[in-house]
Amino acid sequence: MTILIILGMLFLALVLMVVLGERFAKPIDQQQQAKYSKILPILVFIMLIVALIKAVVENGGF
């Protein structure tokens, strides 16, 4: 029963975020989008390397 309550609350939070995002969010301009498109692949690569290092450390090596 607890899992259904948690899932229900997560669903309500998601609906609230979508509704508020559509109502109050401003679209980004081309310059800001270009800046994000340069930074995002670097951040994803760093996150993958960190996850790999974490997995190696937790499992005691390859």
If you had to describe this structure to a student in words, what would you say it looks like?
By secondary structure, the chain is mainly alpha-helical. The chain is built from two helices and no strands. Keywords: Membrane, Transmembrane, Transmembrane helix.
Short description:
This protein has 62 residues and is mostly helical.
Spell out the blueprint of helices and strands:
Layout: H1 2-24, H2 30-59
What is the strand content? under 5%
Shape: flat
In round numbers, the mean pLDDT is: 93
Order of helices and strands: HH
Number of β-strand runs: 0
Count of DSSP-assigned helices: 2
> Helical residue percent?
over 70%
Taking the sheet with the most strands, its summary is: none
Radius of gyration from CA coordinates: 19 Å
Gap between N and C termini, in Å? 40 Å
For this structure, the quaternary state is: single chain
Transmembrane segments: 37-57
Keywords: Membrane, Transmembrane, Transmembrane helix
